[in-house]
Amino acid sequence: MSVTAPSPARLRVLTREIAPLGDLLEYADPRNPLVWARRGAWLVGVGDALTLTASAADAADLSARWRAVAAAAEVDDPVEEPGSGLVAFGALPFDPRSAATAVLTVPRLTIGRRGDRCWATWVLPDAGEPEPSEPEAIGFGPHWSAAVGPGALGPEGYQDAVRAGLAAIAAGDVSKVVLARDLVGTVPPGADLRRLVRALASGYPDTWVYAVDGLIGASPETLVTVTGGTVTARVLAGTVARGADPDTDREAALGLASSAKDLAEHGYAVRSLVDALTPYTSALAASEQPFTLALPNVWHLATDVEAATTAETSALDLVHVLHPTAAVAGTPTEAALDAIARIEPFDRGRYAGPVGWIDGRGDGEWAIALRGAQFDVDAADAEGIPFTAHAGAGIVAGSDPEAELLETRVKFRPVVDALA
Question: Which residues are catalytic, by number?
């Protein structure tokens, strides 16, 4: 583990309401944007006042370290909106055995918008620094397109992986296992990565659009949201492609809602989340039957869960309790993680891990890092900036390898289309 930037004891946080700005994305770093957005609500970070990092195995330690940072900070926040005051953007690895790093970043400047309100938060490590200046927009760089190709697990290899997952289910090792495949590629040197964020936010406004430490995507799946002691989460498990016309689209949704295989997969995921939340919450409620959630490219089976928690339990505490969910790992969890590590020929890194933000009060919004790609900005060279994208499918008894391959193709569409 390491901490970079000045001591947290010196953080001075100043939030002020500002006149509405146009496109908040224009204020992000073109090379390494820091963004959280959904349905017109935006948080955009600029610069780095404090970064907490940890190995994947020690990612859970970030919760206590963040609590110490928040307790030591001097915060002046008359705005008091979700995302105002002291805020850190975070991205965590999927598996504690991963070589990927867990990171929490406090920007030097965070610009937020919810409804008609717009604010700016400056983090000033040195109490002697002058009052901050107004945010400055950066014009967008030229449009670009990416080169994308097969990764370590191509279409045939993925179907073999599904068969291996089915063998593990037949042997009684797991009830469900989520298996992913990968695509790799490059974007041009100096590419303005905000272009990808813009394409995802425009095409998928109902998702959580995220950009944290080179991890960029548009996730449909909330891991957990905590606001003033209220906990909400959404489970997505069970997927089918949208139909080409209204009749086939309606048939696709009805077929998903009545599919025994998809309902079983969804049930595993809901039970996993409810069982994990129960010791930390009260008044927990979940709908008895899932509903069909429409996104531009797919239908999902979805269930919303709501509960209450104490002020001592932060969003980041619950992230570590809930992750990994059955929706992205399988059931039982440890056996599913072992099966994934055995069957997949790559380290997932932060794919399907938690991504989101947390504030000084412990509130925050966290999603599962899906429908995205990890860009290795530090490895950029004359050939471009390399990236890896993943997409997966839940394997249960009765899964068909070809159908699961088609599901991954549908799930790749948001990021692949945006990259093009």
Answer: 176, 221
